[in-house]
Amino acid sequence: MALRTYHSIYPQLGAGCYVDESSIIVGDVILEDDASIWPLVAARGDVNKIRIGQRSNVQDGSVLHVTRKSPQNPDGFPLIIGDDVTVGHKCMLHGCTLGNRILVGMGAIIMDGVVVEDDVFIGAGTLVPPNKRLESGYLYVGNPMQKKRPLNASERAFLKQSAVNYVNLKNEYLSQG
User: Fold this and answer.
1) For residue range 35-44, what is the model confidence (pLDDT) as tens digits?
2) Is 109 helix (H, G, I), strand (E, B) or coil?
3) CATH class of 3-175
4) Which of 102, 114, 145, 158 lies 20 to 30 Å (CA to CA) from residue 132?
């Protein structure tokens, strides 16, 4: 695993986590139990913190970063990912907060100060501009993003199932030694 310190802060992994050896995890990054980081992910907790919740997964080629603290923004923008979140391939998450049971579609970009409430589906290629709030229970798509429609029961169930699928897959990888 490519875990690296930054100013003597080393990433922390909960029980049963999987981090692909081609990924880079730097500094103040905490992965909760059963989280998974897939190939070529870069997570840089250097100028602020990154937290990734239980059973959440970040897929191939995604970039996770933060915004430094400043006089204009004393807390900066950490990156907080809740539980049971699926971050699709090649996503960019920068200084945003994601609740629980969220699916971020492939190639989506979520910018500084964004708050995504629980149970949200963000479509592939969606751009979420800074400081937006995405309301629970909806599908968001587009560039810039638009609230498209409420999620149906099947889509809501899939949010949790996607996380379960990745927990099972990371367990297979871990069992291979």
Assistant:
1) 999 999 999 9
2) strand
3) mainly beta
4) 158
